Amino acid sequence: MTSREPQEHFALHGGTHFTPKESPESINRFVASLPPERRENLYEIMKELADADLITLHNDGLLADGEGEIGGSDDC
Description:
Number of strands: 3
Strand content: 5-15%
Radius of gyration: 13 Å
Number of helices: 2
Strand order of the largest sheet: 1-2-3
Shape: globular
Helix content: 25-40%
Structural class: alpha+beta
Order of helices and strands: EEHHE
């Protein structure tokens, strides 16, 4: 990645906290190269990305809701 500091991200569906280690283009190419059965759900894709050392998954209990609110919102 070209940024100086790693940026934290949250998966749109499921709110999983992660940090990318590669560019979005590299990650997209990797995902596109996976066979269809390994792209069936976001959990599988994120596990594949972590196993390939393209992202770091954080098991810190920090999640975001569907509105992007870290830790959830009153509507959740």
